[in-house]
Amino acid sequence: MTAIEQIIEHIEENKSYVLEAGAGSGKTYTLIQTINHVLETKGKSIKLNNQKIVCITYTNVAKNEIIERLENNPLVIVSTIHEFLWDCIKRFNKQLIIQLDSLNEAMLIDKPDKYKTGLKDRIKEVTYDDSGYRDFEQGSLHHDDVITLSLQMFKNYTALTHILGQKYPYLFIDEYQDTASETVDAIVSHLLEKNKAKLLVGFYGDSYQKIYDTGIGSLQSYIDSNKLELVTKDDNYRSSESIVNLLNKIRDNITQTIPESKERIEGSVQFINCTNSPIQPKEKVTPYRARIGPKKDSDYESIITRLEAEGWDFSESGDDKILIIANSKVAERAGFGNLYKTYSKRFYDPKAELLNRENHFSSYFFGSKDKKTSSEREIGIEHLVSFWADKNYNRVIKYLKQQGVFSSLTKHSDKQEIENKLKELTTLRTTGTIQDVFNFCQENKLSLPSRKLQKFLKKISIDVSTISDEVELKRATKNKTFFEALMLTNYNEMICAFKHIQEQTSYSTKHGTKGEEYRNVLVVIDDTSWVAKYNFEKFFNSTDDKEHRELRTKNLFYVSCSRAKENLVVLTLSQMGDSAMNKITEWFGNENIQSQ
After folding, report:
1. Strands, E, within 338-423: which ranges?
2. How many domains would you assign to the chain?
3. Interval 259-269: pLDDT, tens
4. Phi, psi of 229 (to 5 degrees)
5. Cα dihedral angle (512, 513, 517, 522), rounded to 10 degrees?
6. Among 77, 322, 574, 579, whose CB has the most other CB atoms within 10 angstroms?
7. What local confidence, expressed as pLDDT, does residue 512 receive?
């Protein structure tokens, strides 16, 4: 039986299930097929009972794609997880206040200076909007709080779960591996458990494509406990034979095949192991890395030159892609080297602070990613400029209203004023410094700083000569130096960094982008980059004693390799030892191994 045939059988028997679908298998197509089947066979009943089918997705791009493919069918709600969960619980204000009070008490234990007891006596309403700013004293929720409170509401109020089970008989969740474990627990252990006869849940995703640490990754425990049925989809419509064969060696729970309907391309895979001179006795790690750096740069450039001579196209409009873990060299090539160096001097993990947008300034300009769902929060200055450039005026208005700076935009003069400001901002971005753009946005109230950023700005305004505590003085000096260097940087580097984050360059560090595919892919690995999170040599030779790091490395390698349609080259700039090379040779084939 095909995957869709198994799914239809489970729907007819009202059995909730997981679709485990490998890279390039057409998972979204199967999801659409599923919903269309339910509409065709159950649509009349759903409409008669005033019910809806729910489809949860994690990005606005995916959401819009699914809505379009379903032709805007009014019986289907396509929603992000936060939108859906908040819609489920928002009408139960009395119960929400009780649960928020409990959450407040739990947070009070860890942060007694930030939270006060007796919250339920001080608030009358619990609210949440896209900006997601947490202020319990105002009853305002952060994105994470919606997830946590939903679990508690589903757990503690059976009447709520019964109402939802009656209202939504079919719930389909895309990219299950990136779903927070709390959300899965809320849906399977409480919502589904209390509505087995009238609710069916279908999860769609791939445990090997879990990249973000906050996602549940695997649903195997729910399968083993018979709460969910397993359906596997073993097609690969994307990649050539050589790449599919490699992917089948990396993973052990699905053996993919190329469908007969797809044109077969042999393609190629290659692994290039760059040799480095060994570390000398008594030589420290930092000087050693600096010593071998020029050779690594030379190796990298020579491989790029060779591939381009063979017809690979790494231009922004090209069909080929370089997948690489972010470092200073990537930043230089992508046009934001000085910005990256400024972050490197201040933070232990500049990639997290700048590109993952964990720093207040990064999120001010670039927006942020939801930690529990990895979905994009389009709340940065660059998002505003992007909406304006795309002539998406509804999004511009929504953005400004969410910021709370333009509560009413009804008069023509209001809109003209905004148009003038955005035109000026667009020009300033390409000519000014970060300070110029930041000041302009503040003065013209285009985007207000978050509370955390306001707090940071207040701290750096203090004269460091008045600080007597040595530790505090050191921290304050570092923050001030960082701020001053950041403000003097050309804003154009911010634009380049944002393009990099949004996958608009030939370099990519966002390997978890679902569905991305390129003609040819060069995967660059280097075990001297982000050693706490990834170690490829220990993954290849199975010696990593850190289970989470090994899983993260395996998934990153699988996803990176699976992006290629025709040809794949893996280049390691940090030399792999004999044990690791044995496994690599087994996977790639001796004839496809090269030393540099």
Report:
1. 368-369, 376-377
2. 4
3. 999 999 999 99
4. -90, 145
5. -50
6. 322
7. 47
Helix 412-431 with 434-443: angle, nearest 10 deg: 170
Contact partners, residue 393, CB within 8 Å, separation at least 6:
387
Walk across the sheet containing 564-572 and list its strands: 507-508, 321-324, 518-525, 564-572, 268-273, 593-595
Task: Report d(CA 367, CA 358) in Å as an integer.
Answer: 10
Q: Are residues 421 and 532 in the same domain?
A: no
**CA–CA distance, 88 with 150 (Å, rounded to integer):** 8
User: Is residue 332's pLDDT more than 70?
Assistant: yes
Give the CATH number for residue 256: 3.40.50
Same domain? 350 vs 455: yes
77 CA to centre of own chain = 22
- CA-to-CA dists, residue 238 to 22, 254, 289, 313, 329, angstroms: 11, 16, 38, 19, 30
Neighbours of 393 (CB within 10 A): 13
The amino acid present at 55, given as its one-letter code, is C
Distance CA 342, CA 339 (A): 5
Q: Show the tokens assigned to 215.
A: 């996602």
Q: Is 289 found in the same domain as 319?
A: yes
Range of the domain at 548: 242-325+509-595
| Amino acid 508: pLDDT | 60
Same domain membership, residue 272 and residue 412: no
Cβ count within 10 A of residue 46: 18
Q: Are residues 203 and 305 in the same domain?
A: no
Return d(Cα 208, Cα 551) in angstroms, integer. 9
Give 370's contacts (C-beta < 8 A, 6+ positions apart): 82, 132, 143, 144, 376, 377
CA distance 382 to 385: 5
Q: Do strands 200-205 and 368-369 pair parallel, antiparallel, or not at all (unpaired)?
A: unpaired
| Domain end position, chosen among 210, 233, 256 | 233
End-to-end CA distance of the chain: give it in Å, rounded: 47
CA dihedral 120, 122, 126, 132 (to 10 degrees): -110
The answer on 110 and 47 residing in a single domain is no
- Alpha helices by DSSP H, listed for 90-127, are 93-110
- 114 and 184 in a single domain? The answer is no
Domain endpoint, select from 185, 212, 233: 233
pTM equals: 0.80
CA distances from 346 to 21, 350, 453, 485, 533 (A): 41, 8, 16, 10, 20
Specify whether 355 is located in the same domain as 305: no
Q: What is the mean pLDDT of residues 206-226?
A: 90
Cβ-based burial of 125 (10 A; exposed 0-12, middle 13-18, buried ≥19): exposed
Tally the residues of the chain.
Answer: 596
Residue 458 per-residue DSSP state = H
Pairwise CA distance, residues 306 & 267, whole Å: 18
**CB of 559 within 8 A of CB of 523?**
no
Q: Please state, in angstroms and as integers, the Cα–Cα distance from residue 367 to each residue in 178, 342, 375, 484, following that order.
A: 19, 19, 11, 22
Pairwise CA distance, residues 20 & 177, whole Å: 10
pLDDT digits (tens, 9 = 90+) for 297-308: 899 999 999 999
CA-CA-CA-CA torsion for 463, 465, 469, 470, nearest 10 degrees?
120
